[in-house]
Amino acid sequence: MAQSFEHSGTSWKGQKLKHQTSLIDRLDPRLRVIVVSVFALLVVLSDSFAVLSLGLVTAVAMAVLAQLNFKRTLRRVIAMDMFMIFLIVMLPFTTPGEALFSVAGFPASKEGFIHALKIALKANAVVFCLLALVGTMSATTLGHAMAHLRVPDKLVHLLLFTVRYLDVIGQEYKRMRRAMQARAFVMQANLHTWRSVGYLVGMLLVHSLERSERIMDAMKCRGYKGKFYLMDDMTLQRPDFFFMACCVPFFAVLFGLNFL
Amino acid sequence: METRGLTYRYPRRGVVLDEVDFKLEKGDKVALTGPNGAGKTTLLHLLVGLKKAKAGEVHAFGAVRQEEKEFVEVRARAGFLFQDPDDQLFCPTVLEDVAFGPLNLGKSRDEAMRIATEALESVGMAGFEERVTHQLSGGEKRMVTLASVLAMEPEVLLLDEPSNALDTKARWRLINILQSLPQAMIIISHDDDFLEHLANRWVRLEEAKLTEDRRLTTPDIAVAAAG
C-alpha cells in the first residue's frame, strides 16, 4: 500500500504526459479545454452506439495526432478502467431484463450488458480525448487557461498550489517514512503499525497546516492582498481557428446522430 | 525600526520576549543570536506584524504600528527572508515569483518584469527566469528568494537563518551579495563565521531578554564542559 501511494501520490509534479511535439501543442490551451468539455458533455449525454463508437474512434485518433507515448497513455487508461471494472462486471447481473446467459445460477441481462458497454465506451472516449488535449499541457498552463476562461479564482489557486506543494508534502512524507524505516519499522497487520501510520498521517497534516501558514505569512510579507497576476497572454492564432472550424461541424454530427 | 517594551508569550511555551527594547539604526548590520527556541524568529515576525504583541509597541518608518492595515506598509518596506525557501517560492516559475512582490506594490506588468529580471541579475541568477521553482537546488532557491525580496526595493532586510543548509560555494556567494547591500539588516544565524563577515553589531536573545553582546556561543560550552 505504502509503495503504491509513494509512487502515484507523490511523484507527479504537474508535468505533462510524455509525448513528442505535435500539432496539438500549437493550439491555444483555452481552446483545448473548451473542446474537451464540449466533447465530454456530448459523449456522456449520448445514448446511441454509433455516436459512442465514433466518439471513441475520434478520441483515439486525437491521441495518435497528439503523439502520446503509447505505454504511458495505456497505463493511465487502464488505471481508469480498473476503477470501473467492478461496475461493468456487476451491471449485467443487477439490471433486470432478458437473460443472456447465467453464471452460477445468476442470470446476466442483455440490457445490463448493453448499459455496461456504453459506460465503458463513454469513459474511454472521454479519457483518451482528455489525455490528448489537456494531458499534453502542464498543470500550470491548465491553471492559467482556466483563469483566462474566468473559472473562479479560488479553484484556479487551489490547482496551482496543489501542483506546487504536492511534491513538497510528498518529500515530507518520504522523509518521515524513511526515518521510520531507519528505526526498523516494518508494516505489519498489528496495532503498533496502525498507530504508527496514524501518527505519520496526522503529523503530515500538522506539517502541511503549519507550512500553509508560513506560506501565507511569506506572501503577506511581499504585499499580498488577495490578488494574483497572470503573466502570460493567450491569443488565438490560425491553427486555433482551423481547429475550431473542424470541431464545430463534427460536434454537430455527433449531436445529430443521436436523433437518427 | 524600534521596539519598546515588546512582550510576547506562547500558550504553552511561556514568555519568549519580555519587555524587549531594541532599535535598528541606519547602517546597522545586527547579528541576532540566541539558543534554539529563544524567540528570535518571533521577534522578526512581531516587527512586521505577522504576530501580534501581547504588550509594547513597534515603531517603524516613523510611525507606531499596531493594526494589520498599518503593517502592510511596513512589510512593503522591510524585506523578510524566510528560513525555508520553499515557504516563499510558491509560483510555478522563478520570474513569476520574483515579480509577485512588485506587482503587489502596484507596478505594471512590464515594470515588474524588468525589476524581477534586474533583481535576478543582481544575485547572479540571470537565465533562471523560466525555470520551475521546485526543481531548483537549495542554493538556487535561496538566491531566488533573496532576489524576490530585493525586487521590492526594501529599506530594511530581515534575514531568518539565510545560510541554513547552503554548501560552501553558495554560502560565500550569499556573503558577498549581502556585503554589497547598503540596507540595514537583522540577521538571525547560528553560524558565527557567517555573522563575522557581515555584522557590525551583536545582539543576543536569551531567557526572553535582549542584550547587546559580542560573546560567541562556542567558547561558553567548551568552558562548561571543562568545568
Mind explaining what this structure looks like?
The complex is a heterodimer of chains A (260) and B (227). Chain A is mainly alpha-helical and 260 residues long. Chain A has nine helices and two strands, in the order ααααββααααα. Chain A has helices at residues 2-10, 29-45, 49-65, 70-94, 110-133, 139-148, 153-182, 191-221, 238-257, and strands at 99-103, 106-109. Chain A has a two-stranded antiparallel ribbon. In chain A, helix 4 (70-94) packs antiparallel against helix 5 and helix 7 packs across helix 8 (191-221). Chain A is flat and about 60 Å long. Chain A starts with a helix and ends with a helix. In chain A, 23% of the residues are buried. Chain B has helices at residues 40-47, 68-77, 85-88, 94-104, 109-122, 138-150, 168-180, 192-198, 217-226, and strands at 2-10, 14-23, 29-33, 55-60, 63-65, 78-81, 156-160, 184-188, 201-206, 209-212. With 227 residues, chain B is of the alpha/beta class. In chain B, strands 6-7-8-3-9-10 form a six-stranded mixed sheet, with helices on both faces. Chain B has a four-stranded antiparallel sheet with strand order 2-1-4-5. Chain B is built from nine helices and ten strands. The longest helix of chain B is centred in the middle third of the chain and has 14 residues, at 109-122. In chain B, helix 4 (94-104) packs across helix 5 (109-122), helix 4 runs parallel beside helix 6 and helix 5 (109-122) crosses helix 6. In chain B, strand 4 and strand 5 (63-65) form a beta hairpin. Classes of the chains: A mainly alpha (260), B alpha/beta (227). At the A-B interface, helix 7 and helix 8 of A face helix 2, helix 3, helix 4 and helix 5 of B.
Mean pLDDT, all residues of chain B = 86
Q: What letter string, H or E per element, gives the SSE order of chain A?
A: HHHHEEHHHHH
Label the overall shape of chain A. Answer: flat
Query: How many angstroms does the end-to-end distance of chain B come to?
Result: 41 Å
Number of helices of chain B: 9
